[in-house]
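FORM 12-B: Structure-to-Sequence Request
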């Protein structure tokens, strides 16, 4: 992305300038993952320290936004930063010493990322867009008018502990011009004047910004005058050939046999192979440590979507540090081929553990699920969805410690915002464990991963059964509304009704009826929730078929005996 920038700020007819503004471009890889951010703030003149408030807001926003995780979406990053800034301003203004009261300001910001502009706004500063010669206001003033002459800000930074900030997103086009201004400018200019000045001074946007401010002052603006102009000169659009060329910079490794040394890693033996990848036990020649080396399958050497996902596995793994998630390492030597280096895990998969322990007690299941949930929380905190939680992707290590592996289906909110010519399918995961929305290729959420975890919990407690039985092939559209939850107590009489209700909630076909936070899921896994007590509404023949037919047989026997007695008498 390439942009042109021009800005101007002056105290105008005021004794001091309480406006602040700034622009920052992401450095290195952050230009792609975080983009370009611009902000403008107008310190409220009635507050004692409006200038400090506006300066702190703009500086804090432009600094802290680029410090948030690359995995976070723009919306989450900005909301977290603004909430922290608002809390700081409020606490400063609410101190005991009266001299420190009144740090209140407006804040309007835009983040350009990939081909999207993300708009954030609170107060009466404004953000405009000029496209094809038309001026459009993209923000709504948070101002309440008491009379024709008197008004007050209905929302601002630093006023309250609760922050409500407007958010919207619009698609970028090359040539778009964005104007951020304070009320000392836009309240004293007509749309025609704004368009004329900017379009006639495009070669010098700094001059255009100054002309806008000077024009507002000539119209008797009594306030500080500040504005900044940003023009989109080039968008980060890449063609498929360019992307494929970048993805294939590192070739696939050759066949790896025992004893071979690849970039300083000595192959000990093959640990696992599938149609999509191979996993080897290796020894690092520098440290002597045993590690796992994962290579891509040559079956996908010409598949850009596969290669992108394979490289993303490493990107994801290196950003998670949790005792219940496989640790992925950054190679210390130059790589000549495409592969990952991760910790070597010894132990069976959870699937094998379930085969070896077909009837675990409830407490043993809780101990396992709590570890998996702890690892899954590490993904969710970074705004990632694993999307393929299943027993085969969980390793039971030494002393019962569990680790989540395989990040090939992980969805990263921050990366999903970046346009790519590579087709990214949402149909990921494994049918019996994937949520209904994932199987329908719809947008997932934390609740989608919790569905998968709920299925595993149910399967362990029921002795290998599934809450809806075997799910049909993912090639057909599955109507989950027609599927009926099978009570876990049908297979395990030790399951209390409240736990059955908790499991039913976890695997509800409707994500809005499920748990959204893993903390809630874990709490109800141990603590009876009376509102979730499962009431089996099925007919007796479905709930207790053996007892039903025993009852019917007994009734027939009694009827037959009574008939014989009657006939004999």
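FORM 12-B RESPONSE
SEQUENCE OUT:
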């Amino acid at each position: 992305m390439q942009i042109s920038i021009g800005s101007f700020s002056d105290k105008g007819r005021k004794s001091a300038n309480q406006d602040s503004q700034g622009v920052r471009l992401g450095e290195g890889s952050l230009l792609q993952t975080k983009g370009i951010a611009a902000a403008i703030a107008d310190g409220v003149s009635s507050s004692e320290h409006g200038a400090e408030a506006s300066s702190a807001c703009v500086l804090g926003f432009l600094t802290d936004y680029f410090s948030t995780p690359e995995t976070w979406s723009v919306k989450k990053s900005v909301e977290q930063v603004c909430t922290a800034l608002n809390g700081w301003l409020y606490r400063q203004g609410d101190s005991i010493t009266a001299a420190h009261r009144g740090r209140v300001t407006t804040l309007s910001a835009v983040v350009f990322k990939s081909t999207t502009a993300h708009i954030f706004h609170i107060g009466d500063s404004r953000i405009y867009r000029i496209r094809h010669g038309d001026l459009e206001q993209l923000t709504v003033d948070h101002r309440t008018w008491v009379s024709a002459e008197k008004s007050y800000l209905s929302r601002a930074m630093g006023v309250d502990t609760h922050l409500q900030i407007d958010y919207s997103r619009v698609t970028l086009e090359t040539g778009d011009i964005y104007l951020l201004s304070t009320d000392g400018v836009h309240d004293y200019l007509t749309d025609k004047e704004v368009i004329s000045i900017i379009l006639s001074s495009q070669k010098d946007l700094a001059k255009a910004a100054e002309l806008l401010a000077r024009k507002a002052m000539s119209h008797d603006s009594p306030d500080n005058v500040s504005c900044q102009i940003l023009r989109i000169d080039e968008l980060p659009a890449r063609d498929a050939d360019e992307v494929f060329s970048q993805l294939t910079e590192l070739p696939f490794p050759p066949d790896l046999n025992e004893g071979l040394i690849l970039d300083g890693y000595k192959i000990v033996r093959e640990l696992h192979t599938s149609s999509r990848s191979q996993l080897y036990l290796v020894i690092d020649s520098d440290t002597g440590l045993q590690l796992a080396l994962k290579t891509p399958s040559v079956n996908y050497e010409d598949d850009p979507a596969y290669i992108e996902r394979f490289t993303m596995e490493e990107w994801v793994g290196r950003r998670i540090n949790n005792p219940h998630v496989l640790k992925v390492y950054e190679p210390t030597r130059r790589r000549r081929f495409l592969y990952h280096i991760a910790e070597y895990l010894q132990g069976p998969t959870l699937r094998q553990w379930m085969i070896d322990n077909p009837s675990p007690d409830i407490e043993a299941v809780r101990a396992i699920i709590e570890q998996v949930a702890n690892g899954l929380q590490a993904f969710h905190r970074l705004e990632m969805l694993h999307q393929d939680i299943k027993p085969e992707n969980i390793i039971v290590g030494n002393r019962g410690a569990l680790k989540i592996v395989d990040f090939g289906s992980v969805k990263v909110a921050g990366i999903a915002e970046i346009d790519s010519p590579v087709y990214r399918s949402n149909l990921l995961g494994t049918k019996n464990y994937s949520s209904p929305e994932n199987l329908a290729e719809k947008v997932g959420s934390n609740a989608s991963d919790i569905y998968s975890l709920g299925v595993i919990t149910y399967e362990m407690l029921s002795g290998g059964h599934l809450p809806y039985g075997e799910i049909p092939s993912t090639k057909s559209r599955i109507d989950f509304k027609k599927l009926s939850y099978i009570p876990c107590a049908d297979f395990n009489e030790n399951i209390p009704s409240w736990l059955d209700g908790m499991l039913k909630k976890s695997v509800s076909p409707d994500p809005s009826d499920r748990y959204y936070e893993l903390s809630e899921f874990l709490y109800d896994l141990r603590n009876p929730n009376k509102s979730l007590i499962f009431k089996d509404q099925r007919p007796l023949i479905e709930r207790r078929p053996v007892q039903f037919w025993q009852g019917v047989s007994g009734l027939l026997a009694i009827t037959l005996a009574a008939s014989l007695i009657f006939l004999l008498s």
